[in-house]
């Protein structure tokens, strides 16, 4: 199993989930459990601190996207904070950098500081999200 540790800090306005290690297929169940618990909180704003994440794959990204969708359906939000360049690249390649608000720091994510959002570089179009099933992959 990939090494992943999680720390949860419950604040008045948000739950901060700090991830340490690798958010990859082998650690998906740990991440899913933590995110599911965060969705049960009444404030329903989840900040995922990625500062200590060394690696992320599309399984980890999809887990974040699904949780962001569930939070939005329930009137909340999931946002990302402090990813390193490698994680930003993977988010971009998996088509999630533009769909999940990603901030340069945890404080900016807590404050909702739009000036600290990580955006797609000028002139580089966002990638299409990975198709979810075989039929979609064949037609893509």
Protein architecture, described:
The chain has a five-stranded mixed sheet. Helix 1 runs parallel beside helix 2. The C terminus is likely disordered. The radius of gyration is 14 Å and the shape is globular. With 140 residues, it is of the alpha/beta class. Strand 2, helix 1 and strand 3 form a beta-alpha-beta unit. Helices cover 35% and strands 25% of the residues. It contains five helices and five strands, in the order E-E-H-E-H-E-H-E-H-H.
Low-confidence stretches: 122-140
Order of helices and strands: EEHEHEHEHH
Gap from first CA to last CA: 32 Å
The helix-and-strand class reads alpha/beta
The description of the largest β-sheet is: 5 strands, mixed
Strand content is 25-35%
Mean pLDDT: 86
Fraction of helical residues: 25-40%
Q: What is the topology, as strand order, of the major beta sheet?
A: 1-2-3-4-5
- Rounded radius of gyration (Å): 14 Å
Helical segment tally? 5
Shape: globular
DSSP E strands, number? 5
């Amino acid at each position: 199993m990939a090494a992943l540790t999680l720390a949860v800090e419950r604040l008045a306005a948000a739950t901060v989930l700090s991830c340490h290690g690798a958010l990859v297929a082998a650690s998906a169940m740990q991440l899913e459990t933590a995110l599911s618990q965060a969705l049960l909180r009444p404030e329903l704003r989840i900040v995922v601190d990625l500062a200590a994440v060394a690696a992320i794959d599309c399984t980890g990204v999809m887990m974040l996207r699904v949780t962001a969708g569930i939070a939005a359906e329930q009137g909340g939000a999931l946002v990302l904070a402090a990813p390193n360049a490698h994680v930003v690249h993977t988010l971009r390649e998996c088509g999630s950098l533009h769909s999940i608000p990603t901030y340069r720091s945890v404080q900016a994510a807590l404050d909702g500081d739009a000036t600290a959002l990580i955006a797609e570089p000028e002139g580089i179009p966002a990638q299409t999200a990975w198709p979810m099933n075989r039929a979609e992959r064949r037609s893509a």
